[in-house]
Amino acid sequence: MNSISSIENLTDDMLSHLARLVKHNSVQGPALADKPFGEGPAAALGEALCIADEMGFSTVNMENYCGYAEMGEGQDIIGVVAHLDVVPAGDGWDTDPFTLTRKEGRVYGRGVSDDKGAIIAALYAMKLLRDSGQPIRKRIRLLMGCNEESGSECMKYYVQHGEPITTGFTPDGYFPGIHGEKGLCSMTAYSKNTHILSMNGGFVTNAVCSHCVTEVPLTCVDPVKLEAAFAKTPLVSSSVTVLKDRLHIEAQGTAAHASTPDLGVNAAAYTMWALKEAGMQDDFVDFYLSHLGTDCDGAGIGCKFADDYGALTFNNGIVETKDGTIRCTIDIRFPVTLTAEKLKAMATPHLEDAQGRIEIQHIVEPLFYPEDSPLVQDLYRAYVEVTGDTSHKPMVIGGGTYAKSIPGIIAFGCEFPDTDNHIHDVNESLDIHEFQMQTAIYLKALQNMLAE
Fold this sequence. Notes:
The chain is α+β, with helices and mostly antiparallel strands and 452 residues long. It has 10 helices and 25 strands. Helix content is 29%, strand content 27%.
C-alpha cells in the first residue's frame, strides 16, 4: 500500500474533519450535571465521535469524560490516547483561532497540533489500515479525553471504568518518540505582607506568565526609576502610568510551555525584578525574587538538579490577588532519576519565612521506558521507515502527557524535529505535509504493534 499517495488523496477530507473539531472552543468550563468539563469539551467530543461514526468505526461516549472509536477484535487493545480540550486562545492571533485557516501550506487554529490534528491523523491511519484488508486481530482504540490540559481527570475516569490498554501511544509530544517524562510538582506561593495593591497575570498554570498587570502605591517607588528598571529587562513591552495615588503597571513577556520556561519571558517575574531594582522595599517582592525569581531552575527552593536526561525546570504560570493576598502558581518538572520523596525533602526547608510561604499541592512521579524496550522500538522503527531520519532519537521531555495516566503507553509525535507549531501560543499551526507524514507514521506504528 502506497500510504503517502493514499493520504494525499484524503487530505481535503482530513482538513474538513479537522475544521469541525477546531470550531469548538474546548477550553474547560464550569462543570454541568452531564458535562464534567463544561460545554466546550463535551461538544468537541460529540463532534469527534460523530466523525468517527461517519467513518464506520464503533464509538462510545463515557459520560463526556472521554470517548473512543474502535475497530478490530481480540482481547488486546492497542490504544491511541489523545485529547480534545485546548488551552485558552489568548490575544494576538492573525486569524480566528476557532476557524481552521489554510495558507501557504499550513493550517492555523487552536488545537490543530495540540491535539485535534493528531486525532484526525489517527482516525485516518485506522481507516487506511482497515481499508487495506490486513487482518486486525487486536482491537485498536482511539481514546479521546476532555481534560488533559487541566489535570487529566478524564483518564482517571477511564482507568476506573474502561478496559485496560495493552500497549500504545499518545500523539501529544514529539517525534521520534518520548521514552521518558519528567516528574510533575505543583506548588502555590502566597504573600504574607505586601504593599502591592494588586497583581494579576497569566492564564494557565502550565505556561509562562506572559502578561501581568500590577498596581502599587505611588509612595512605594519612583515611576521614573521604575521605567528605567523595566528598560533593562527582556520584556517585549512595559508601561508605567501614574494615577491619583498609585502606579498602574503593565508588562508583556513571551509565552512558553512550562516544560521549557527558559524559552519564555515571565512578565510577573520581571515586574518583581523591576520593582526591586527601582528601590521598592516590600516583603513579598523580596520573597518572590529569592524563592521564585527570574531563573527557571528551582534554586530558590533548594531544588536545582540535573541528570543525564535533563534539568529540573521551575515556572510561575498564574499570579492573582484576592482579599489582599497574592497567589502564584508554580509548575516544576523534575528529572527522571529524582523521586517525589527526594524532591519534597529538598524543597521543604525553603518553603516559608516571615515574608511568604509556599505550599506543595501534588507531586507525580517521573515516567521512564528504556530506549531498547519493544514499545519504544516499534514506534521508532515506524518513524524511521516513513521519514528515513535516523539522526534523531527517542528522548526524555519535561512535558507531562497521558502516558503518566494510562499504563503501557508513551508519547509519540505529533511535532517533528526542528518544527515549532506554536503549541500553547498564538497562531498555533500545522504543516500540511507533516500532517500527512504523521498519518503515515501512525499507520506504520499500528502495523508494527499488530505484528507483536
